[in-house]
Amino acid sequence: MQGNRGPHHNHGANRHTTGPPEHGHSGGANSNGQQPDSSEHRSVNESLTLDLQSFRKPGEKTFTQRCRLFVGNLPPGVTEEELDTLFAKYGKASEIFVNKERGFGFVRLETRIIAEIARAELDDTPFRGKPIRVRFATHGAALSVKNLPDFASNELLEEAFAVFGQIERAVVIVDDRGRPTGKGIVEFTSKPAARKALDKCGDGAYLLTAFPRPITVEPMEQLDEDEGLPDKLINKNQQYHKEREQPPRFAQPGTFEYEYAMRWKALMEMEKQQYEMVDRNMKEAQEKLETEMEAARHEHQVMLMRQDLLRRQEELRRMEELHSQEVQKRKQAELRQEEERRRHEEELRMRNEEMMKRQQEGFRGNFSESREPDMRMHMGMPMNRNSLGGNSGQSGGAEGSPVMSGNSNMPGPGQGGFPRGLPGPGDYVVPNKQRRF
Questions:
Q1: Which helix or strand (DSSP H or E) is residue 341 part of?
Q2: Ramachandran area for residue 254 (φ above 0: left; ψ -120 to 50: alpha; else beta)
Q3: DSSP 430
């Protein structure tokens, strides 16, 4: 709220210049039955509306629950049109509700800053002779989140709770040094979404991140810490007057008040020590749980790595088996091919041998058929020297030739066939001497 002090002071000036005349006109119209000048009223509203444009942040969500104002102490018979006219200079309201019997209403403006300006200007201002009270309405769909990790941010918190419904605002609360306090606020646009988030996260099973620390979700306690409780709002009864008989003071030593004040102080010190001891025990328990969780997480990771290693070993074994099966199939295929090749070669060799045998048998058959008439002819004719070698003597050969006369009729290398007769006893020729047996 400190960042909005500038706009409050600026519009405080507008309140003194333009606010009272408008309220005066509205009050006069209700009491005297006269209507204010519409042209003047419209010009003032238009000028203020143009000034309020500068207080709208880029990308800011509009008409949220945080822009909803509670208007109390309204006069009887106030209508929604009159309440709309009262807030007209702060922009067009998206929600206007009036409970005429109980004298209160609700108005939802465009942005939070405009609602703050309207609350600062209209609070405790007279309306039909009664000072109205303007406060921010309680957010019925706001949740308080606790036990947040240190690395949680506004964006992470909004992303985590967006699964339950549309979110108006998600804030992680930090201290004055900007350090996270482990607490946050989540505001939904509707109450059913907030109830759904409470039902789902009530058992502490919802994890904000991968770190297994469940968060705590509770309904947010609405506290008016901006205005507090002014003295004018206290019911001034008998107890009030009894308490205010003496002003604030210090108790003097030796008095009744001082003695019991010391006893109250000792009780508060004991309470403080008890809280510190409980906090210390809780912190030690949290540290122990975190240590056990870290060890369990490492063990879990080791187990996952071991399972992954076993899975990879199994995959490697399967791949080796497939590879060995593939190698065996290739070897068997090569053996079959080699066997087929040998069988083919054996068949070719046997065919060649068979063809050679057939050729030899055919040659022998032809040779025996051609030799048989010649043998018969030679066996029927006498073989002598004169008959075989008569022509050789006539050609001028001497009787004492060293060459056998029977050899003159022998077939040469170029002649086919065999001698027509076998040599007789007198067919051998001896050099320089002829013998007949």
A1: helix 256-380
A2: left
A3: E
DSSP output for 84-142 = HHHTGGG---SEEEEETTTTEEEEE-SSHHHHHHHHHHHTT-EETTEE-EEEEPP-TTE
Count of residues for the chain?
Answer: 437
- Walk across the sheet containing 142-146 and list its strands: 167-174, 180-188, 142-146, 216-219
Which whole-number Å values give the CA distances from 370 to 356, 358, 364, 375, 409, in the listed order? 21, 18, 10, 9, 21
The Cα 250–Cα 258 span in angstroms is 9
* CA dihedral sign, ordered 45, 51, 55, 58: positive
| CB-side neighbour CA atoms (13 Å) of 109 | 31
Owner of token pair 């606790």: 146
Give the whole-angstrom CA distance, residue 10 versus residue 428.
Answer: 167
Question: Residue 388 and residue 161: Cα distance in Å, rounded?
Answer: 138
* Rounded CA separation 184/424 (Å): 146
Half-sphere exposure of 154 (CA within 13 A, CB side): 8
| pLDDT tens over the chain, length 437 residues | 333 333 333 343 343 333 333 333 343 444 344 444 434 444 444 444 545 667 677 777 888 888 889 999 999 889 999 999 999 888 888 889 999 888 899 999 988 888 988 998 898 899 988 899 999 888 889 999 988 888 889 999 999 999 999 998 999 999 988 898 989 999 998 889 999 998 888 777 788 877 677 888 888 887 776 677 778 778 888 888 888 888 888 888 988 888 998 999 999 999 999 999 999 999 999 899 989 988 998 999 999 999 999 999 999 999 999 999 999 999 999 999 999 999 999 999 999 999 998 888 887 766 666 666 666 666 655 555 444 444 444 444 444 444 444 444 444 444 444 445 555 555 544 455 445 54
Q: What span, in angstroms and rounded, lies between the C-alpha atoms of 320 and 21?
A: 95
Exposed/middle/buried for 117, CB within 10 Å: 0-12, 13-18, 19+? buried
Q: State the pTM of this model.
A: 0.52
